[in-house]
Amino acid sequence: MLRSARQGRTALQAAVVGLALAGIATLAPATAATAEEAPDYETVPATARGSNDHVLYWNNAILDVFRKTGGTPGPLSRGGAIMNLAIYDSLNSIRTIGKPYLTKDTTVAGSYGSVNSAVDYAAYTALRGAFPNYPVADLDAKLKTALALPDRGTVAQRDRGRLLGTKTAEAHLANRANDGSGDTTPYVVTDAPGHWKPAVGKPAGAPNWGKVKPFALTSGAQFRPGTIGGFTSPEALLKSPEYAQQVNEIKRIGGKNSTARTADQTQLAHYWANDLDGTYKPVGQQYDHTSVIFRKYRPNASSFESAKLFGLTSVALADAAIAIWDSKYNTNWDVWRPADAITRAGEVPNPNIVPDPAWQPQEQDLAGNSFSPNFPTYVSGHSGVAAAWAGIVRHYFGTDNLSFTAGTDDPLAKGVTRSFTTLSAAAKEKADSRKYIGVHFEWDNAAALTLGYKVADQVHLGILN
């Protein structure tokens, strides 16, 4: 069942949902901008732009929201997309940088002194609405820090930016109020060997997220992968030599006590994991790496440029999460994770797999307890969001050949940085990491990489440009 509002909605959300979309196509501030207000934003010295870019500030601040919110990629990426689209539409009203996503206020055109406050209030308002359980005091503190950053706007210009950012974010929140993200329909388990089911005492992770309205795709099923390995039924799949090959690979390289996995493979497995609540999660890592790349290759760029990059990136990640969860839950291919495939192999049975009841994945919590993420294996979430990220950043910069070095939030890879020569190499390593950590098969990763790149292509062609 779709719900128009979440229980416990803040007063801000209640007001937002009540907006009539017909009346927000053009957002009018109290007074119109004038061309004489400020010189062109692009004449501002680089030291007052790239180093104090408010778009980059909020895309770093949202990582703390991710850490304290936790959970699956869908709700996190949805909130990030709402924030970044609100920022984009606000700045696109001041200077046209592409097609509007939802709104455009032509009366603020040229009000360059309003840029920073528009970003700040668009981000603040969007985050309050999209993450109602995040502490308001913490968000207020982030806004206070943002407002204290260098800003060349006059009091009047900054106030105009506040109105623009707030109204634009409210419009975006209202637009997403009935998108299906509040659906709590229980997951129905197929209780049979080979089928995935939740861990005892834990609910299935976001079983309805594949039905959420996408931001750029026509539906979560638009690029749904075909059947696993081309098999006509799960039963045929489970008895096949190909399935045995996939299972035995993870049995060999993905176990907690594996001797076949190299030290570097163990390191990269945890570097890319970020599965534990308290980390910025796999989606947050892509946000962080986007900032690293933008700062390296566009050190003197304006907020107009970073707003467009993060608008596109955040939508690609959000729609990838929806498409991935469609594949996980909305098909008959709810195949179990490697841990069950190995420990319960005798239940299938497949003569090419020897059961190992003691096998555990390398994935583990801070106490050393092994676990697998609590949702079906096909397709891989990490792999899909990595490809969506690589694809959209490649479109933005016009090349895959962007070398970079970046870090991680995972507590089992604390202080680790890794370097990459291309975007696609980073995405492929993230996909491979799920095998080395013992929670995904190769075909989960391969199908998700293909899916993610298709999502990125659709987002690039379909919005903002």
Structural features, described:
With 465 residues, this protein is mainly alpha-helical. The chain has helices spanning 11-17, 54-69, 73-94, 115-130, 136-147, 155-175, 234-238, 241-253, 263-271, 281-297, 303-329, 338-343, 381-397, 423-436, 442-462; strands at 404-406, 418-420. Strands 1-2 form a two-stranded antiparallel sheet. Helix 4 runs parallel beside helix 6, helix 9 (263-271) packs across helix 14 (423-436) and helix 10 packs parallel to helix 13 (381-397). It is elongated, with a radius of gyration of 23 Å. Residues 1-49 have low confidence and may be disordered.
Q: Keywords, please?
A:
about 475 residues, mainly alpha, 15 helices, disordered N terminus
Q: Estimate the helix proportion, in percent.
A: 40-55%
Beta-strand portion reads under 5%
Distance between the termini: 35 Å
DSSP, total strands: 2
Uncertain segments of ≥5 residues (pLDDT<50)?
1-49
Apparent shape: elongated
**Alpha-beta classification:** mainly alpha
Task: Using the CA coordinates, give the radius of gyration.
Answer: 23 Å
Q: What is the helix tally?
A: 15
Whole-number average pLDDT?
90
Q: Order of strands across the biggest sheet?
A: 1-2
Describe the sheet with the most strands.
Answer: 2 strands, antiparallel
Element-by-element helix/strand order: HHHHHHHHHHHHHEEHH
